[in-house]
Each structure stands twice: as C-alpha cells, then as structure tokens.
Write a structure and sequence with these properties.
single chain; six-stranded mixed sheet; Rossmann fold; four-stranded antiparallel sheet; 2 domains; Alpha-Beta Plaits; 13 strands; alpha/beta; elongated; about 300 residues
C-alpha cells in the first residue's frame, strides 16, 4: 500500500507556474526525498499535500483517502516540521507544544511533550520563549512539534536549513532514529544533495515545477558513466598532459604537480592507469571520484528527462 499518492498536481500564482503535473507515489515506511534548487517547487508541493495550500488541479491520497474528505482522521496521523512556518515567538517551547497537542487531540499530552523535550535535549529550555532560541534549538523544537502526534507520515521541509554542520548532522540522525524505531513514512525536502542521499530510499528531482526523474541514489548516479581522476606527480605535468591529449582524453585542470582528467567508466580506466604507471610518470598520489548527486542534478536539469 502507498502512504502518499500524488497525480497531476498543479499550482500557479497568476501567470507564474510553481508546480506543473507533478506525480509520484510513496510506499509505506519509505523515506522519499524531493530534491531541487531554491524555487523548484518543493515547498509548494509539500504544502499542497499537507493542506496548507489549495491545489489548482490534480489528486492527492494519503493513507488511501482524499485528505479533503477525510481530514480529521488523516491530520492526526501526520506530522509537519518546516523551516518556513515558524512557531509562535512570544510563547515558550512548552506552550507552543501544548497548543499543537490540542490541535492534534493528543491524549496524555504532558507526558508526550516531556518525552520529546528529553529526547531532543530541550528540557532545560522548556520555559524559554521561541524568540530567544538559537537556530538549532528552534529546529529541534520544530521537530518536536512534528513528532507530537506519533505520526505515521512525517513531512520535513528544509528542516536543516541554516544549521551549522554539527547540529545538522545530529538532526539527520534524530530523523533516522525515529524512522528506524517507528517505520513511519517520511517526505523530506532539501536542496542539499548529500543530505537527501544520506536519508532517502528514493529521490525525486524537481526543477521549475516539474519532476524530471524518480529513482534511488545509486541508480541516478549510474546515469553518468564517467569518472574523474586526479594524479599528483613528483615532477611537472607537462609530459603526462601531452600523453593524455594524444589519447583525446579530456583534461579538466592542471595545477603545478596535480593533473585532473575525465574518463568513461569502463575498462578504459584500468588500461590507461596501467599505461601511466608503466611509463613511469612519477605518480605519488591518485584519487578517483564517482559522479555525485550534484553532478546528476546538473546533468538532468541541463538535458531534461
């Protein structure tokens, strides 16, 4: 069974089309990533699914039902944490969570709130106003809000944006821990490629309001059959540069004793490196890079589906 089904979703603001004909299905228990640059339509898509925006066209099913017809049942099975809809800054952490516990009709709310505050290291800040928190503390509070109803489906929209690397990594680990514990379905949006790769089972590339590809990280990266090789030499690179040019190999850069070039990912790599070492070009270090999700996204965005 699919947890979320989206078909032909469309949203525009006047003449500006934010989302056009977006369709995808998310399996129960899957972490599904929406990946794209700023303005790609990620937040608009997630806001339509969660009911914060009305859609111009298309259908949405959550846990098999149309949320517009079965909202009371569905809303209590969903949690939302987003960087773009801040909590009330005048209220404290605890007061904000109490408000949302009433919206979600949570039983034993104080017990649930205390448990989340402990899990996210916020117990000592419970009575501090949101407006006085650091960005990391706000993010953890937002995640607490999203997890209040013990959701079957969790929507996380740019939830690590603006965080320093250490706090962002801890936040990603919290998300993974919750998913491993509950097997909930997560729809995760980000424009950080490495983050989506670390968390998500499948990824949808979104650009200019359209989904270009949906697949696993491994399969997406297999689209580009190239490797980038960087060699460091004892002496200058002139001799090796000449050798590579004669073989019509694309040289990316030459910097003092370091030369970087590109090869098709096949037996050519092994054979060429064998020749280089046999001819004694004085190589002292080597690094081979596979395509990253950044490379794939640029490739897809430039070339289309």
């Amino acid at each position: 069974m699919f947890a979320i089904e989206v078909e032909g979703l469309r949203k525009s603001y006047g003449k500006d089309i934010a989302v056009q004909d977006v369709s995808f299905k998310i399996r129960k228990g899957e972490i599904f990533g929406l990946l794209g640059p700023n303005g790609a339509g990620k937040s608009t898509t997630i806001n339509m699914i969660t009911g914060l925006l009305t859609r111009d066209a298309g259908t949405i099913k959550i846990l098999g039902s149309d949320p517009e017809k079965d909202w009371e049942r569905i809303k209590n099975k969903m949690g939302v944490a987003t960087a773009y809809y801040p909590l009330n800054e005048i209220l404290t952490i605890r007061q904000n969570l109490i408000v949302y516990s009433k919206i979600y009709n949570i039983q034993n709310a104080n017990e649930r709130i205390n448990s989340l505050l402990k899990d996210f290291g916020l117990e000592h800040l419970a009575n501090k106003r949101i407006g006085h928190l650091s960005s990391g503390e706000r993010t953890r509070t937002t995640l607490c809000k999203g997890l209040l109803p013990k959701p079957e489906i969790l929507f996380l929209d740019e939830c690590t944006i603006g965080l320093d690397p250490d706090i962002a990594q801890k936040t990603r680990q919290m998300i993974l821990d919750y998913h491993n514990e509950t097997k909930c379905t997560i729809l995760f949006t980000s424009h950080y490629m490495f983050e989506v790769e670390q968390l998500c089972d499948r990824i949808a590339f979104l650009d200019k309001g359209r989904i270009l590809y949906v697949d696993t990280s491994k399969e997406l990266k297999a689209m580009i059959k190239k490797e980038v090789i960087q060699l460091t030499l004892k002496s200058n690179t002139e001799k090796l540069s000449s050798f590579l040019r004669k073989k019509s190999i694309r040289i990316i850069s030459v910097q003092e004793s370091i030369i970087t070039f590109e090869l098709q990912e096949n037996k050519e790599t092994f054979q060429l490196l064998k020749e280089i070492f046999n001819q004694d070009f004085d190589v002292i270090d080597m690094h081979i890079s596979k395509p990253t999700l950044d490379d794939i996204f640029i490739h897809i965005a430039r070339n289309g589906k």
